[in-house]
Structures are given as structure tokens and as C-alpha cells.
Amino acid sequence: MTLPLLTYTPSSQNQRVKSFEIPGEEFPKIYTTEGTPSTEDINDLIWAAYRQIFNEQQILVSNRQLALESQLKNKSISVRDFIRGLVLSETFRLRNYDTNNNYRFVEMCVQRVLGRKVYNQQEKIAWSIILATKGTQGFIDALLNSEEYQSNFGENTVPYQRRRIIAQQSIGELPFSQFPRYDQSYRQQLESLGYFQNKAPVTYLWKWQQPPYPIVYRLISSATWYVGTSLIAVGIVAVILAYYGLLSL
Asked: Which of 79, 145, 237, 240 lies 20 to 30 A from 135 at CA?
């Protein structure tokens, strides 16, 4: 049984206040298919959509959705449909949904799809219930079909962070791309698997060293690495001494 979106009280965020500022370089560029955009404009729009949905932290070749790009270029789908395809793609799910809890995933999607922060904990819970009862596709469809999305971006505009600049302040809000992808709960999972010791990241030379494999394997590999490094260092020193005639090889 699916539940309707619970009501919540919006807080006084910056984007809810009408702007009287003159647009400048600090304001986001609007990417849209309205009018007659050129091929270069469409390519820039596609890049802006990837940057908005995947953030600069996840701009990878493997995240590209070539079929969706082709449909958008041929005007078979709208920008809103392209955004829907990116958010529902397997790579977005793998790198964002599977590695976070529902609350963090809701927060990320509101930022990237609606272009603002969540108002409060009540809104986060309300959208989490939609995610839990309708699944990721039902949740994303609810965001894209919302009156807020339609009134701000419509069918043809790539979402963007709305009103990041705060009037009469030297700096505005941080771009969403600078927010961490993981929350505290995921970090705790990594710590429980042994990826962090003494609050410092642990790096592993080989994949089979990683937890939860037996520690004896990791000890053996560490010893092998140190022995190999020592032998290489001894070899380099021997070559240098032989070059100066201090050692006969």
C-alpha cells in the first residue's frame, strides 16, 4: 500500500524569496532546449545535466547514457525525461542509492533534481516514505512531476542550484557538488569492515587484502611488500657502488 506525501512546513530558504538582483557571473547559467539550440548548445546542455545529477565527483565515462543522449539530440525525449533517465540509471543507483541510507539518498535527490536543500527533517522523512513504498522510480517520478519542479524547470530546462548567492554577504551557500556523497552511517559501515584505523584511511596494495578477508593474508602480503621493497633498495645501492668502482658485481 502506497502512502501519499506527508505534509511538511517549508523553511525560509533563499530560493523562496523573490530576487531583485541583476544576474551576473555568480548566477547559474540556464541550459534549455527552448528556441533553436545549436548542436554545440545541446552538447553543453548534456554536460550540464551530467554535472548536475552526478556532480563533478562522479563525472566518469562509465556513467554516460549514450542512448538517452541520442534520443535527446533527436528530440525524441524532453530534458525532463533525460534527467529522469540519468537518475534512474544503473550507475546512479550503484554509486548513490546502494551506498547510502534512504534519508541521505532523499537529501541528494532533492538537491540535484529540485535544486535546493531539504527544508527540514519532516520533509526528509516524508520523501523517504515515498521512496520506501513506491521504490526509486516512484520517488523520482514524484519529484519530477511535482509542481515545484514544473514551475521552476518545466520540460526543457536542466535543474540547477537555485539562489545560491545570498544578498549582502561576501559568500553564498556551498555548491551541492562540495557536499560529501556519503553520510556518517556509511562511514560507520566502512569502519566496521576495517577500512579506517585510528581515523586514518587504510590503503591496500591488492584487492584480496581488503576486509573482511582473514588478517593473516594481509600480514603475509605486508611482509612480502616490505621484503620486496628492501631488495629493490639494496639492488639500487649496489648498482651505484659498482658504477663508482666501489663494488664488483
From this structure: 79
**Residues 20-79: pLDDT tens digits?**
555 554 567 899 999 888 999 999 999 999 999 988 777 778 889 999 999 999 999 999
What whole-number distance in Å separates Cα of residue 72 and Cα of residue 191? 42
Q: How far apart are CA 111 and CA 162, in angstroms?
A: 10
Task: Give the integer Cα–Cα distance in Å for 31 and 75.
Answer: 15
pLDDT digits (tens, 9 = 90+) for 104-136: 999 999 999 998 888 889 999 999 999 999 999
Residue with cell 544576474: 23
Amino acid identity of residue 177, one-letter, is: S
Show the CA angle centred on residue 24, arms to residues 19 and 29, nearest 5°.
Answer: 90
φ and ψ at residue 200, rounded to 5 degrees? -115, 140
DSSP string, 143-210: HHTSHHHHHHTTTTB----TT-SPTTSSS-PPPGGGS-SS-HHHHHHHHHTTSEETTEE---SSGGGS
